[in-house]
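Every protein is a chain of amino acids, and every chain bends into a shape of its own. The fold becomes a row of whole numbers, each drawn from a learned catalogue of backbone shapes. The protein below has been through that process, and both of its lines are reproduced in full.
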Amino acid sequence: MRIIVIGATGTIGAAVAAQLERAHEVVRASRRGPIHVDLDDPASIDRLFVTVPDVDAVISCAASGKLTPLDSDDDFYRGIQGKLFGQVLLARTALRRLRDGGSITLTSGVFERAERGMAFGALANGGLEAFVGAAAVEMPRGIRVNAVSPGWVAETLESTGRDGADGTPVEDVARAYVEAVQGFRQGQILRPSRAGVLVV
């Protein structure tokens, strides 16, 4: 398969690309690099599929957002644009560009417990997961759409001085994306953990 991994320079994206490259042709895309795409820029999503034609699958690992106070309008709407609307637009564009039987994998996320600044992330994650379930019934030509919903990644926690044992190793997280692409799931949310991939 020919697979685009968006966000391939990040912790999760790099691990996903490395695992998939063992068996597939992987095109690494990011905001910085020779294959450019920015989920905040609709035109760049269109250009991506012109630059990289004949694609079997696309994976979005780029969507993220910082902790944002509930009363911060600019950061709140900017985060919703990239994480929620950007990925929805990616899926809508991909369904017209992927080969028959292709796969779209988005990234939502899960918070084990609510903390200050997480409201926007919870909104984006919940919206994406609802979108995936509803969009699955409208996918044409056998195309599948799923989402991976990681919690804290162990390596990310360690890079900020926190205990990595509270997160999931990135290699385990990446396996959920590989399963979404190589498997037969449709309209489902895959949650990686140290114990394996759960479907929620």
